Amino acid sequence: FVLITDILDNFGNLVFERIREKSSYTPPGSIKSIPLPKNFTPDQVPDIAKETCRNWFFKIASIRELVPRFYVEAAILKCYRFLTDKEFSQALMRLTKMTRGMGDPLVAAYARAYLCRVGQRIDTHNSYVMLNFTDYL
Predict the structure, then answer these.
(1) Which candidate, 14, 42, 117, 127, has a CA 20 to 30 Å from the CA of 89?
(2) Each residue of 3-39: pLDDT tens digit?
(3) What distance in Å separates the CA atoms of residue 53 and residue 7, rounded to the nearest whole number?
């Protein structure tokens, strides 16, 4: 499980960095484009990078099996930062509810653990953690 989550985290970081590389923007009143700062806002992200980010989420949504779709979407969850600042909590709650459809309780428990691990890095609201815990019980 730890090796797989490391691979998923690496994949998520690669996708994030690739979109960030495409996100060099031109500040108002300037001709030269510069890379995004570390703490950027979605307003600074150009449309081409937003489209690429949306495309990643659409491609993941087309995966039919629940477990692979869950893990891949959780891995690139921080890419929502390119689109909006407010969807992290909604996406975490949606993924939390998605774990209810996993038939094997052990698979669902590991999925909840990974989701909590990813969520702690990107969102300060912990309402999804309590829902994960109560769903587990």
Answers:
(1) 14
(2) 999 999 999 999 999 999 888 877 777 878 788 888 8
(3) 20
Alpha-helical runs (H) found in 22-126: 47-61, 66-75, 88-98, 105-122
Q: What is the pTM of this model?
A: 0.86
Q: Which residues of 66-78 are buried (b: 16+ CB within 10 A; e: fewer)?
A: ebebbbbbbbbbb
The structure tokens 């309590």 sit at: 130
Helices (H) then strands (E): counts for the chain: 6, 0
Tokens of 53: 């980010």
DSSP designation for 126: -
Residue 12, amino acid: G
Distance CA 72, CA 25 (A): 28
